[in-house]
Amino acid sequence: MTEPYELTIAQAAAEIRRGGLSPVELTDSLLARSRTLDPQLNVWVNLDEDAARDAAAESARQLAESGPAGPLHGIPFAVKDIFYTQGVETTGCSKVYEGFVPDYDSTAVALLKQAGGIMLGKTVTTEFAMFEPPPTKNPWNFDRTPGGSSSGSAAGTAARMFPVALGSQTAGSVLRPAAYTGVVGIKPTLGLVSRYGVMPVAWSLDTMGWFTRTVEDAAIILGVLAQHDPNDDISLTSPATDYTASLSSASPPKIGYMYQYFVEEATPEVQDHIDHVVASLIQEGAFIEEVRIPIDLHDGREAHGIVQNAEAADAHASDFAAHADDYMPTTRGVIENGMSVPATKYIQAQTLRRDLRHELLKAVEPYDAILTPSTLAPAPDTSTTGNPACQWLWTTVGFPAISIPSGLSEDGLPLGIQLASAPLEEATLLSAASWCERVLDVHLAPPV
Q1: Active-site amino acid positions
Q2: Which of 111, 250, 295, 378 has its CA 20 to 30 A from that of 82?
Q3: Which among 393, 354, 399 has a CA at the least distance from the CA of 374?
Q4: Beta 165-169 vs 118-123: how paired, if at all?
Q5: What whole-number distance in Å separates Cα of residue 104 and Cα of residue 102?
Q6: How far is residue 326 CA from its own chain's centroid?
Q7: Helix (H, G, I), strand (E, B) or coil at 214
Q8: pTM tops 0.90, yes or no
Q9: In 124-228, which ranges are E strands?
């Protein structure tokens, strides 16, 4: 018998609507799962079981009286601890913000609640969503990192402690932990989902994202969150879209396979794995050919780091001046490095980002998506959050990208493939990802 905590968003929402499952039953099942696993995994920063049960009871009452409030009615969700949550402490997992309680919800949290979602609590992030290794464990192997910075959101989704969790990506903080923990992670077009009420890292890079266990669930959440927000100065205006409508398309996608940089620098095991995946997709009808761009991506990665560090230094200038000793060593290093970046070097890095975007727009134009491995190797040890080599490119150019599970390594650790499409082509991206998901038929569950 399937336990409620095992249900995806789509499955649970359907059961709630037909009366086969109540929001209270679902919430209780997830809370019990968290109670069992969190002492081992360290997913939660803040979990208020009483508040979650009260919200679930109110959700059940509203459902009985007036029907579902939206597509997430009765669905619990978790929130990375850089998103403001009204009345709930938001620290960025840093001593600097201990005791800080916002008086409003970030736009993303507010939209999930308006759609009927039930907030369970706040998940562990690396300090201020940077690079300090987290206390969270990878549910596949406690000696391996779950990735960062959205560590708790990824690990908890994989461990069935919640069906969806908010994260954010400035380099690789959604897609990398998704791959390391065997779940779906999506980073939409820069500006499509509001950043209002989220602690910043780098203003020209920060992109909201989330974790689910299926592409369908990722599409459901995108339909809720892709709304213009005048409070975010880069927020885009795009027509309301039913992102789930294109998922059942039977047409095999046209894919550009980016061997350059990505596969060239992967471990032999990942190289063999991605070659096998590509062969499987071609066998089922996908059109796949290699695509390259005339820019050294090592230079691009260096430019991304310059921009990220300089903008992080700016974002933290006041707090760092007052509380430098309260920052963790790795975070402090990022900020101090950013403070030393000359203006000319920052401008040159931004120029290279522009050139990368121009070349990638040309490269992706003939295809539905560009395919790469999600990571160069399986999850490494807990002294690091892993290498963002496979993700930074799509963040720096603002393209939407998604990671989906594609198998297990020889050591029994998750592997994934990454797909990226042109800006605002999320429907195309999700259609291609859904087709690949069906063909690969990989459904991973950690041994916890």
Answers
A1: 80, 149, 173
A2: 378
A3: 393
A4: unpaired
A5: 6
A6: 27
A7: coil
A8: yes
A9: 165-169, 184-187, 207-212
